[in-house]
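From the pipeline queue, job 12 of 40. The input is one protein chain; the requested action is below.

Action: predict structure.
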Amino acid sequence: MGKVRKFLYSILLLGLFITLFFVFIENQQAIHLPVYFISMDDYPLLGPYVQPILFWLSVVFIAVAILLLLGTIFAPKKSNTLLIKRKNGKLKVQKKAVENFVMTIVREEPFIENPNVKAKLTRKKVKIKIAGNLRKAMRIPDKQNALVDEVKNEVSALLGTTDNIQTEVRLQDYQKENTTEESKVE
């Protein structure tokens, strides 16, 4: 988790804590506790600002809750199999089968070393990510685009469909970092 994401989560959780703490203080008379907290309205510096702060924090959390709910409801289901229905039957294609099929195509190419293929299958989309070390002498965009087009066409031919399932292929170059391990003891 990156620093920015941690920072945003921390701010959201702090706002949620403040909102729930104020709700706890205002409703503490519902349960008899051995400790009694003074209402936030009674504090001279915080009193006039508590209600607007709580209002806007509540609006933010309602908006976040609605967005999370919509994201949960409408997020595409990822699975390990792709089901293709036809008039004459069904075809189930597994994720590993697509990955191995693409790997055989990619291994034949001379300009990519140590290829790694990942596939994500949803109901109407196949996303394929090809990563590897691209040789510097052969970093020709035409060859890379030809490989991407070939993989798209071959996967579409494998699935036997071109109209109702989208195929997306992405080629990524990962460089070997020049890490020199130095001895910590001199």
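Job complete. The mean pLDDT is 79.
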